[in-house]
Design a protein that fits this description.
Elements lengths: L1 H7 L4 H21 L7 H10 L2 H19 L4 H10 L4 H9 L4 E3 L6 E3 L38
Helix pairs in contact: 2-3, 2-4, 4-5, 5-6
This protein binds zinc ion (ZN) (2 copies).
Length: 152
């Protein structure tokens, strides 16, 4: 849950406001199109609240894609448009498949470095454990390098 909360934390205030506007306007729309006495009022009241929720979640997901693409140094405008306009949420699904690793700061020089690198491309500082022989990334728990077979 705390990870989800951290992830939701990157959604900008504008994103939350847009989602709130989506929810309020669709709730109003539901009230406006509701025919009197059909279905019975309690059911209608429940529908009025529940039906706009998927759209609100969609608005929040789009805001998340926007903020997340920006922090990963990806083309966030393009991805936001894809998330909104590709039908059935396929733009959003594509984003989660294709998104690049998080950008971190190099401990050596402080420059922004894409995640998944073994060495900093700016100063050469070691970012993650790498093989002493071929210098490729070694995952924790490996006792031999998966690329050249050198013992770790
Ligand atoms: Zn560096
Ligand atoms: Zn190796």
């Amino acid at each position: 849950m705390s990870r989800l909360r951290t992830e939701l934390g990157i959604i900008s205030r504008t994103g939350w406001i847009v989602a709130a506007i989506v929810w309020v306007s669709f709730t109003f729309l539901m009230v406006l199109v509701g025919k009197p006495n059909d279905p019975p009022p309690p059911v209608r009241a429940l529908m009025t609240i529940i039906v706009p929720i998927p759209l609100t979640v969609f608005a929040l997901l789009v805001s998340y894609v926007n903020a997340d693409a920006r922090r990963r140094g990806m083309r966030h405008v393009m991805w936001t448009l894809l998330a909104v306009f590709v039908p059935n949420g396929i733009g959003i699904i594509l984003y989660f498949i294709l998104r690049e690793p998080l950008i971190t700061a190099c401990p050596g020089c402080g420059q922004a470095v894409r995640g998944g690198f073994a060495f900093c491309p700016h100063c050469g500082a070691g970012l993650q454990k790498s093989c002493p022989q071929c210098h490729k990334l070694v995952e924790p728990g490996w006792s031999a390098c998966a690329y050249c077979g050198a013992r770790q």
